[in-house]
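Q: Sequence in, structure out?
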Amino acid sequence: MADEMVKKVQQWLNINYMGKVGYNEIEENGITSWETIYGLTRALQIELGIEQTSDNFGPTTRSLFKPLSIDSNPSEDDLSLEANSIRQQIGIIQGALWCKGYNPGGFTGYFGEGTKASIIELQTDAGLTNCDGVVDVTIMRALLSMDAFRLLEYRVDADKKIQEIQQAINRDYSSNKYFNDDLGLIPCDGIYGRNTNKGLIYAIQIEEGIDEPTGFVGPQTRESFPFLQVGSENNFVKLLQYALYCNGYDPTGFTGYFGIHTKLAVTNFQKFVALDVDGYVGKQTWASLVTSTGDPDRKGTCCDTSDTITDEIANDISAKGYTTIGRYLTGKYAMKPSEFKLIIDHGFNVVPIYEVYGYEAEWFTEANGERDALHAVIAAKTIGIPEGTTIYFGVDCDVNEDDISSRVIPYFEAVQATFETLDNCYEIGVYAPRYACSRLYALGYTPTSFVCDMSSGFAANLGYPLPKNWAFDQIAENNYTVGGTKYALDNNIASGLDTGCDHVQDFDLENVSTIIDILGFNVTEYEKTTTVFSSDAIKISVRNALEEQISGNYATININDGEVREISGVTLASALEKLELTLSADANIELKKTLLSFGNCDLKVAAEVDATTGEIKIKIEQVKSKTINKKAINVSKMMIITIDKDKLEDYVEEVVKSAVEDLIELIEKILVLVVLAIAFFLIVAYAPIEAIISIVLTLIVLFK
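A: Exactly. Output:
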């Protein structure tokens, strides 16, 4: 909702600073936003004489700003540049107060009792004890931020006790130089977020006596975590109680004494995160309370990898104590059916992960959710993943609240809707940072979560508790070598909420029989181009997809009862007669048998010639319908034939060479497309080199 005083602040900024170097015009809409805060910040920097202004309240701004108070007002007759700058700075303070919801009593550039009272109110809300109404650099920095220092009552997750923790951390630790330089004051809005988590870590490090605390848990911090138990009483216990409450476990007070209620909160937390449940607080419990990774050296029973599992690697993984392996369904790291069977045969359970472009927030749209859901189901079925298994869709990037609301949630709505059309043959899970997992679970889209806690720097992990529905918690990546083969393995903690699948369920998507399958090129992976034959002169690749792959300029070949009847409406009787004359009796029989095996179908054929290299690329596609769990889908199988005409010449006589040269001019003719396609089918009857020569000789007959 627009606020009239905020609008006046925006107008004042534009009137006073428009045209000055370093200031950017802001919208006058009465709504406090980062744009307005940046405008106030740049205005202050201009008053401080900073030539290279920025949106940040950085070290230079902090070093140049001098405290302002009710005693800072210049006399009315002082019209010096310095006096005018002080009045402007006071105006900036008053403008920032209005934007933060505090009423300084006016917008005058004069530091009066109303302004002082508002500053005291802010200091009190921030938890400070020395509430004197003086705007020092810490208060100025807090003013020029979007941090709130009042409980956000409109947020359902705002918690008065979290606010008490935030205020206590500011009161007891914000005067530390390293804390203050980094954070200034942490917000006191009742929301456990990134800066509250960081402030808590600073507090622990300060209590540990670390000379230069950082707000991040490193080896020194982990080694200095104190051991606590019932009867302990000190500031560490109070910080423990803060951490427990922030993770959803109420110790029933922040007393600094480790009593039975604190122990109960500790044991409940340990049970939830799958630690040894003993009620003692050691290094692992501390780490799990304040960092997303917890103890990175903690041993899990689940792992995941992007590397292909071989017998040797499977044995090595088993020797390390793992019982469950996560593998990708598609993409360049895709698990093949044979690999899946090998993993199962070695006694592992398998957790299927689907990710194509999950590392980009822009990928998450409704359309891509529908697409990915269908592709994931097809891939899972062709690999042999049993129905009922949870497929984890990857959100492998740092997503903020807006990304989650506007991108990730609509994506998973589409995934869920698509799964429903497929009779919910698989369960939906998510691989994502903590906050994304929790939001999706709360909305009912993902019963289980695979948490990418290893990305400890993600904003969506910092300051967010482990999701209630976590099944796997990814905490560390390790690299191993076995038998000279290197492979990477992510270490995951398992909660037991999901165990993956433990057997192969045969599925006959191969029944979608196309010319490519009949020719013996059995490729089951989707959205991946697989080379099935390669020589110096010719390469053959196959690509499967769930939508048509050839568009634009192409010809359609109609095959009926073992005969090629027409191409794009043009009959081919004379062309086929010429083709038959070039072949032996046995070859003609093989050609007829092959065409009969294709049944009645339409093929798309397209060709292109590289103007620079002369390389010829021919694409042959067949689309067939397949019903999966009552949903009809189109399965496209495409064969790509790439011919290097220069190298092809080495295989044939001089007369053949000249014919190939002529092909460049003739390739655009529709007839060439079908002849190439039909001639290529002879590969089932000839060895590769003979088939190549057959193609070229056929062209000579047709165009000489």
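The first helix runs from residue 4 to 17.
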